[in-house]
Every structure is written in structure tokens, then in C-alpha cells.
Specification:
DNA polymerase, domain 1; 3-stranded antiparallel β-sheet; 17 helices; elongated; hpI Integrase, Chain A; mainly alpha
Length: about 400
């Protein structure tokens, strides 16, 4: 309902009413008295009646109003929104489009990626968005979904990590963006950033700890862990390593493949595709291992010649060994971090280390590992101090001779 009100500063009356979802206030030159209020109320009643009938012409009542331009803009926007809404209603459901999109992407994805995305769709995305028209999904829907994910307990009973939530949201972002491009609507994912993920927990072993592990570990796994500690190979890379990728003549490991979900597949990216140089201990470990498994396909395998299952190895060999030695429980992946820190501490070239690790640049190398090798990477000015002391001592000695 509209009303007749007066301005406190001038005492003049004005109309105050709603039209097209906008609050409209139109000033008059009439003083605030019962007679003028009665006249204005009759006009206001007529305005509201026409608004309800859909015949109200704002310009006829208020021809010089500043509201006319604002109302026109609102009318255009409303018409565009209506057209966009009607077009969005013609888009397929999220489930229909998502399944079509996955089918189209199969040609460029590995089987493991197809499996991961399909699992995410069936477990998280389709139950939430499946029946909705893909063009009618809003940013609010996406944010609410992300908020709900943060409340879902994971396998360990704790809330899903930021990294896990980002992995679930990645196919959702790709699907919505692709649908927006095809059906020409604004993606609701626009402006939504990934959750911040805590930095990688790096806990490398010291050389003394590595020596203790290699002295104590089961004999049939000594070569396995020695090679892990001194090459920086990922778990999937060493478990999927085949003898045809081990060049004993050139003393190189050709890291071209990885074992993922029981399947040997090409490495994930170009940086991971590399040749890792063998140190003498690593070379000798491969020679010894060849006597045990050289007739088979895989360097490290079960009695049946099949690849190792990293979960079983970790639970039955790795963690019991750490407990026996009284060492802090750490994931086997820390062997990779250990290789990087030992190389750095030994003074190897950072560029060479980055290539061995499969990093495209040295940036990650120093960002992650520098604090573990203070003698190499610290920036405390000690090197300059030694240089200056040497030079100044030379100058001081020379000046002393001159004075003599």
C-alpha cells in the first residue's frame, strides 16, 4: 500500500508507493494539510488501481520525473531476464548434459580419470543437481552445495578436506562452464574460487634415519626402499616400474608410466615424463634386484609377478618398521621429499634436482625444501661476511706494511 507523506525539511507532501518492484517517491508543492492530503489520496488510489489492472502509465502522472529512466532500464532488464529464463528452461537437465559431456571427454581422458569423474557424478553431483535444468542452476545453488560438502564426514569421520572438496567441485565447474558456452548463458560458477589448501606437510627423513631403515627393513624390501629414498620416485612410479624402463647400461630409470588403480598408465604430465639418473647405490640395488625379478615384467612385484599393492605394503611393511625403530609415523611419500633434501644438502644443482623430481622449474624445490638445508639455501649474509673479512684482512695487512 502506498501512502501520502511529508518532507520534514520543507513540510511539502509527496507520494510514496511501489511500482514494478521499485519504491517510487514523487514530490509535490502542496503543503501538509487535511485538504491536500485528501486530494492526493484520491490520486494515489487511482494510481494503485491502475497498477493492479496493468494500465498504469507513469509518464502520464509524472511526465518530468527522474524515475522514468530508471523504470525503463528496469523494464529492459526484466524483459532480458525473462527471455534468458525461458531459454534456460530449454536446456537439458544437469544429469543429461553431464553424462553426455563425460562421454565426449572419454577420448582424451585416461581410464582412471573417467572412473574418478564418474564416481564424483554418481555420489555427489547428480544426487544434488541431476533433475535441475543446467541453465537454471544458480550461484547460490553451487555455494550451498559447497557449504554442505564441508559438513560431510569423510572416511576417517572428519569433515572433508579443502583439497577433497576442490576435487569434487572441479567437474561441476567444468560441466557448468561448458554448458554455459553451448547454451549461451552466464555460468553460475563465475567468480567462485577454489578453497585454499594448506601447504604440503614435508617431513623428510635424516640420513641417519634412512640408514637405520635400510639396515632393519625386510631383505626383500631393502632395494625397494633404497631406490625410493635415493631417486625420489613417486609410489605409483616405482610400483609400476617395468624392467624395460630400467637402462642399466646408461644407469637411468625411464619414468614414463605409473600404476594407478591397478592399471599401468602414462605419467600424468610432461614434467613427470623423465629420465632419473642412478647413483652407485641405486645402480647396485637394481643389479641385485634383477637377480630376483629380472625374468618378469615388473621390478618390484608379488610372487605371482603382479604389481605391488601400495596399501598392503604400507600397512604390513612400512608402518610396522617405523614403529619398531621408534620413528615418527610418516607416509611413504616422504621418501620422495627425503631424496630432494639429501640432494640439496649434498650440493647438487637445483636445476638437475628439479629434473630428477619431475618439476618444470626450481621454484617449487626451494619453496618446499629450503628450510631443511640451511647450509645451502639460508640467506643470512654469512657468505658475504666471509668474503669481506678475507678482503679486509688483506687490505689491513697491506696498510700495516705501508706504515712500517
Amino acid at each position: 500500500m502506498g501512502s501520502i507523506r511529508h518532507r520534514v525539511d520543507t513540510g511539502k507532501l509527496f507520494f510514496d508507493f511501489q511500482y514494478a518492484g521499485i519504491r517510487c517517491r514523487e514530490q509535490t508543492t502542496l503543503d501538509d494539510n487535511p485538504s491536500n492530503r485528501k486530494k492526493m489520496q484520491r490520486v494515489l488510489d487511482r494510481i494503485e488501481e491502475e497498477i493492479s489492472l496493468g494500465t498504469f502509465d507513469y509518464a502520464r502522472y509524472f511526465p518530468s520525473s527522474k524515475m522514468l529512466e530508471k523504470l525503463e532500464v528496469s523494464r529492459v532488464q526484466s524483459r532480458s531476464a525473462k527471455i534468458a529464463s525461458e531459454e534456460s528452461e530449454d536446456t537439458p537437465t544437469f544429469e543429461e548434459f553431464a553424462l553426455q559431456w563425460v562421454d565426449e571427454m572419454r577420448v582424451q581422458w585416461r581410464n582412471t580419470q573417467i572412473k574418478t569423474v564418474s564416481n564424483t557424478l554418481s555420489k555427489h553431483l547428480i544426487p544434488t543437481f541431476g533433475k535441475k535444468r543446467v541453465g537454471l542452476i544458480t550461484k547460490r545453488d553451487v555455494m550451498a552445495f559447497r557449504s554442505d560438502l564441508a559438513k560431510v564426514p569423510g572416511r576417517n569421520g572428519k569433515a572433508l578436506s579443502a583439497s577433497r572438496i576442490n576435487h569434487i567441485l572441479t567437474p561441476l565447474r567444468m560441466i557448468l562452464n561448458e554448458a554455459a558456452n553451448r547454451y549461451e548463458f552466464t555460468s553460475p560458477y563465475h567468480g567462485i574460487k577454489s578453497l585454499k589448501v594448506p601447504r604440503t606437510d614435508v617431513q623428510p627423513f635424516s640420513l641417519e634415519e634412512v640408514e637405520a631403515i635400510l639396515r632393519t627393513v625386510r631383505a626383500d624390501f631393502r632395494n625397494y626402499y633404497l631406490i625410493r629414498f635415493f631417486t625420489g620416485l613417486r609410489t605409483s612410479e616405482i610400483d609400476g616400474l617395468r624392467w624395460e624402463k630400467v637402462d642399466l647400461q646408461r644407469r637411468q630409470i625411464l619414468v614414463h608410466e605409473a600404476l594407478v588403480d591397478g592399471e599401468v598408465v602414462p605419467t600424468k604430465n610432461d614434467g613427470s615424463f623423465r629420465a632419473v639418473e642412478m647413483s652407485l647405490p641405486v645402480y647396485q640395488a637394481f643389479q641385485e634386484q634383477h637377480l630376483a625379478t629380472g625374468q618378469g615384467n615388473y621390478v618390484f612385484c608379488t610372487r605371482d609377478g603382479t604389481p605391488l599393492q601400495h596399501g598392503n605394503v604400507t600397512k604390513r611393511v612400512w608402518y610396522p618398521l617405523l614403529r619398531f625403530l621408534g620413528l615418527k609415523r610418516r607416509r611413504p611419500y616422504q621418501t620422495r621429499h627425503t631424496a630432494a633434501t639429501l640432494w640439496l644438502a649434498a650440493g647438487e644443482s637445483p636445476e638437475w634436482i628439479a629434473r630428477q623430481m619431475g618439476h618444470s622449474t626450481t621454484e617449487m624445490l626451494f619453496r618446499i625444501y629450503s628450510r631443511y638445508v640451511p647450509n645451502l639455501t639460508r640467506q643470512d649474509g654469512s657468505a658475504m661476511e666471509r668474503l669481506l673479512l678475507s678482503r679486509l684482512a688483506h687490505v689491513s695487512t697491506r696498510e700495516g706494511h705501508e706504515h712500517d
